[in-house]
Structures are given as C-alpha cells and as structure tokens.
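Usage example:
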Amino acid sequence: MIRVAGLTKHYRTPKKAPGLLGSIKSLVRREYETVKAVEDVSFTIAPGERVGFLGPNGAGKTTTLKMLSGLLVPTAGEVEVLGHRPSDRLPGYLSRITLVMGQKQQLLWDLPARETFELNRALFGVARDEARRTVDELTELLELKALLDRPVRNLSLGERMKCELVAALLHRPEVLFLDEPTIGLDVRMQVVVRRFVEEWNRRTGATILLTSHYMADIAALCPRVIVISAGRLRFDGPLQDLVRRHGTDRRVVVAPVREPTPEELALADRFQRTDDGKLVATVPAADVKAAVDQALRALPIQDLAVEEPPLEDVIARLFAEQEPAA
Amino acid sequence: MSAPLGTLRHAAAAFPDLLRVSWADMVAYRAEIVIWFLTGTLPIIMMLVWDRVAEAGDIGRFDQPAFAAYFTATLACRQLTGSWVVWEINQLIRTGSLSPALLKPLNPLLFLSAESLAEKPLRAAILVPLVALLFLWRPDMPLPLSPVQLSLAVVAIGLGWLLNVAIQVCFGCLAFRLEQTMGLYMVWFGLWALLSGYLFPLELMPPVARAVVQVLPFRATLGIPVEVLTGALSGWDAVGGLGLQVAWVLAVGLLARLLWRRGVRRYEAYGA
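Running the assembly step on the lines above writes:
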C-alpha cells in the first residue's frame, strides 16, 4: 500500500550574510547551504492502518507527508503509494488520496462550503448522486448540516475544519494524509475531529497518516507511531512500546487531606508540590515502592495514585536524548 | 496514450461546473468587479480628450464620430478581453495555496481561466447601458457591423482574451523565482497601454513605429479586436489580423506552458 525506502530530501537554500554588503555579495556570488530535511527514512504501511507521525517542529514530518502525497520530489530513495510514484501526480493517483493541511485551507472564503464541495466534485469528476450521498454521510457524522449554506468567512475555526474534511473526503480517497488537522482547535473540537477520523477509518477502511502536535490525537487515533527527529526515523512501532521503552518513570501522586506542615514536607523529600495542591514524585519504576512508603509515612493522605508519565513528557525526553546525535 | 485524452475529456466535462462555481464566486465579489470595471473606463476619458482635439479638424481619417466609435469599441474590447490571472497565480504561489491546488486531478490554470471567463457576462451587462449612453451622446457614430464583421470581432475578442491569459500566466510564473513579479507586470502594463491602441489609435503613429507596433503582441490583445469591431480591418485584412493573433496565442501559450512546468518542478524541489 505505502512503501518508503531510503527516502531523503535535501533542500539547497541560498546563504546570505546580513546587511547591505551581504546582499551585494550574494548577488555576485551565491553561496548555498544544504538543509537535510529527511534522511534515509524507510517504512511500509498496510491498507487500513492508522499511523501517527511524531516529531518536534522542523523534524521532517510535513516534508515526508508532502513527498508521500506527491507535492515534493524526493532527492533520493523510493516512494510507492497505491502502486504509483506520487510525484508523477497522475489523475489516477490524485483521485485516490487526499491531503488535509490544518494550516492551509482550500474552502472558497466568501461562498458557502457547499460551493467548494461542488467545485471539488467537478474537479474530481465525482457523479452528482454519489457526491450527494457522501456529503450527506459526512455532514451527519460531523453534525454540520446547518452550516453548509453559510459563507465560510462566518464560520468558526472548528466549523471550517469540519467543512475542510468534507471537501477533502468527497471523492472517498483510500489514503488520507492529515497534517496537523486539529491545530488551533479547542479541546472539544479536537475530540470531534479525532472521533470522526476514527469512525471514517472504520467505515471505509481508508489508510490514515497523521501528524499532530497534540499527543492526545496520536494516543487516541494511532495504534502505530513513527517518530522522526532531525530528519531521521527514530522509532517505528506500537505506541505502548514507545512509552514502555522511553517512559520508564512513574508518577506517584498524592492528594493530601489537609495542607501538609513544613515538617511533613521535609520528611517527604521526594515529593514536590504542584499548582493544584497535589504532591508529585517522579521516580524510576524501581523506586515506586520507596516513594509510596515515604508518602504513607510522612504525608496526610486522602488519595494516592501511581501513573504513567504523560506522553508529552516521554516524547520530550526521547527528543532530548537524541538531540546531540543531530 | 489514453491518459491525456481522458484528462481532456474530464476537463471538458468539468468546465461548465467550474464556470458555475466561478460565477457564484464572482457574484459574491460583484461590488469589487464594478470597481475593477471602473478602472477599465479610461477609454471614455480618452474619447473626450480626442473629441476635443478633433474639433479643430480631422486627424488622419478620424473625425469626432470616428473617435467616439474607436473608443467605444476600445472600452468594450478591454472589458471583454481583460484577464487578471497574474494576480491570482502570484497569490497562489506566494501563499502556498498552490499546494492543495496541485493535488487536484485538474490543472489549477483551468480553474483560473474559468474564473476569468465567468466575469464576462457581468461585464457585458454593465457595458450595454454604458455603450447606449455613448451612442446617445454621439448618434452619428459610424456603425460598421455586418454579421460577418461581427462574427470576426467575436473571434478576435476571444483570441485577445486567450492571449492576455497566456501572457499573464507567463508573468505569474515568475513568482516561482522572483519576489517582485507584480512590479515587472506593471512595467509590461505601462508598455501595453501605450502600444496596444488603448490610449490612441495605432494608425496615428509615424509609419516606421507603426510598422513595428503592428506585429507586436500588444496590438494582438486589444488593437486587432477594436480594429475589426470598428471596421478598420475587414475582409482578408481582418482574417490576417486573426491569424496574427493565433500565432501569438500559440507562441505565448507554449512559453506559458514551459514556464508553468518548470516553475512547478522548482516548487516540487524547493518546498511547496
């Protein structure tokens, strides 16, 4: 379905010294510098999979998605999606995929979203009946029927994103590339988009590749994650494995029954106070028992819990560990 | 090869729908179109200027009614052959909106052309009362039109529009490489205003200059349609004018295609 081998993308960008002199120099003789956006990345994805791309800003996630969808031509390596070389951008390929970019919208700004759907219907050559059925199905799933006849400029960011999704899925693509689909949305709307993507995958069996800054998106949607950092593939596997491998710490969280005294706090030296009045100790898994013992001995406990660290922390650590290698 | 043929058939099938959506889009921006229309009304001012000049006596073969006819035709042809796709292309490339457009199975230029074409009915609708007023002002304006001449004029206007679109695609494609594309286009526009027949009939130029300007693309976008519409070019001369237009459409069209393809390839290489 999707096969990527040794995928590499280097950009050559002009290097310019600052100031007027620099501008004049670069006019006469340009110096270039090579940016290695993606370096020797390989993976395969089976039909119907939901895969999350994780990585810090500038890691190469979007560049990879753009090469997979056909917008960018790789410097080296091979990409094959649905039996096509994406960068040929043949109509037979484009009508089977879609790319949703959270930061770039394609809706016609001053017209109702319906008109964009109609435009896409024509561009993709979808029959009217079929398009109507798909729009009905999508608008019902996304609960946006009432919004279709309002000019797009009058919609909220979240409502616009829903309409973007309808426009992007009108031709029922088999592969969905979603680049930050929830960016800027409030928590409730993030959940709506997430549930929708999951349901659509279940209904249509479409393959989904998703990048997101919000770990919750990835955790809820993607059984498999691919971590890219500084252009290189760092991890490829189930999310639990990533957490297990890099998230060996545990958080021991105590909700005190009353304000602890300074003496009690001095005894419970592994614990630190959080803004919401709780006491938290982050310790290696092997030290959980010691930390719990200390809490039981020293603190006025109402509730005690041992948690896995938030995914954000795991990822942040993973990237921090790998920073020197880059 | 069946793929390009299939694409062509798909494009032909999609075009009416593109026109319809563009029409809806245009209606949403109708106030803006009226303002744009007004920017194209310079021929009316030129008409008044030349009318005054011709009071003292004919200039070349132009008396007052002939000037009125010339600039009425210029006004109409400018409105109907004009295109603004250079702004749209520039915008697409610079904002990155080209990316989603490139992932559609039809060339984005086709949609932009449909947009340009969709404005024409509205522009024609504004033209009708305006032209009627001008006729009331100078009822002695010569009306040359035989059905044959009128058909030739329609074709010449269509070719003028196509040539304008092709030229603007070329300038728009400069945005793949340069930042000051619109400045360059304005230089072209300045030359165009002088050399297309927009400000004065080209036949009033000195013979040598006229011989050169006659064959340049500027006249092919506007001067030729105006000359056919006013009857200054008729019969085989008119057909020759259309031939010159076709030649320019082909030449600039091929250049536009080359620049577009190269630009897109660069876009694919340097980040979309």
